Automatic annotation (TrEMBL):
GO molecular function: histidinol-phosphatase activity
Name recorded for this polypeptide: Histidinol-phosphatase
Family: Belongs to the PHP hydrolase family. HisK subfamily.
Species, as recorded: Desulfotomaculum copahuensis
Pathways per UniProt: Amino-acid biosynthesis; L-histidine biosynthesis; L-histidine from 5-phospho-alpha-D-ribose 1-diphosphate: step 8/9
The protein's Enzyme Commission number: 3.1.3.15
Signal peptide start-end: none
Ranges for domain PHP: 6-215
Keyword entries, A-Z: Amino-acid biosynthesis, Histidine biosynthesis, Hydrolase
Superkingdom: Bacteria
Length: 284
């Protein structure tokens, strides 16, 4: 029987998520039929954005992200949940979503190797220190640039993230489409052509996986991040590791459209990976 997986889930540690505990997500998983959860709180290390991003939530209050005691608390919550749900499920994995910024590879490596993560997801959230994942910041960034400038900066940054070999998987690959379509129209959806192919070749060489992120459907887009044709291109370039994630920032979104994403992988003759100790150990 095929498992329902969600490998991109933001518990209350993420400052932009609802202040919900890991236990609350596990209870929602039981109700929603999600068999395995990988929690992925945000880690952002760009010093230029210190005033915006360098925070997590602990005990209902903002806590400095660079004070890594929050990760000790995170793993303690993971351990308690694993004990509590050992007989009923869901299976619980400890992950991290890292916002990649060039020049900060050593900082990222020091953190991701200091803790026993099962899975580290690498994402490009910011271009030139502007968060293209944010509507507020996108409104300031996109109108001052051409689509060619945006995608060149995005794929250059993404290529450096892959070349760093710091990540098990790349998250929401065409994130610039989230708000970019409002400024550039439908051309944004084909702007990857001629730019992503060499990156996929490098990902295949490194064994880096690719996420199907379903949050795009909640935001009114018609395709996942990335779109089906990009997944086909990834497959044809040799990528074999894929994960599925809702990018939930509240329990109500846990497992949202993940079954459809798993079905898409199946239709493309691909499988979703399960990670443990940063290795894909099974597929469903």
């Amino acid at each position: 029987m095929k498992k329902n997986l969600d490998y991109h889930v933001h518990p209350g540690f993420s400052i932009d998520a609802e202040p919900c505990s890991i236990d609350e997500y596990c209870r929602q998983a039981l109700a929603a039929g999600v068999d395995e959860i990988c929690f992925t709180p945000h880690l952002e290390v760009d010093p230029v954005r210190r005033h915006r991003d360098w925070f997590v939530r602990m005990n209902g209050e903002r806590h400095p992200m660079n004070d890594l005691r929050w990760l000790n608390r995170y793993f303690a919550e993971i351990d308690r949940a694993r004990y509590r749900y050992a007989s009923t499920g869901p299976v619980i994995k400890a992950g991290l979503e890292v916002g990649f910024d060039r020049g900060l590879e050593r900082t990222i490596e020091n953190i991701t190797t200091a803790f026993p993560f099962d899975f580290v997801l690498g994402s490009v959230h910011c271009l030139e220190h502007h968060a293209i994942s944010s509507w507020e910041e996108s409104r300031a960034y996109f109108p001052t640039r051409t689509l060619a400038q945006v995608t060149r900066e995005y794929f250059t940054t993404l290529d450096e993230a892959v070349q760093s070999r710091l990540f098990d998987c790349i998250g929401h690959l065409d994130l610039y489409c989230r708000y970019g379509h409002r400024f550039f129209g439908p051309a944004v959806f084909s702007a990857y052509r001629g730019q992503v192919e060499p990156i996929f070749k490098q990902m295949a060489l490194c064994g880096t996986g690719l996420e199907i992120n379903t949050s795009s459907l909640r935001r009114g887009l018609q395709d996942f991040h990335p779109a089906r044709e990009i997944l086909i291109l990834a497959r044809d370039q040799g990528i074999r590791t894929f994960t599925v994630g809702s990018d939930a920032h509240r329990p109500a979104d846990l497992g949202d459209h993940t079954v459809a994403a798993l079905d898409l992988l199946h239709n493309l003759h691909l499988q979703a990976a399960i990670f443990s100790a940063r290795r894909p150990v099974a597929a469903v």
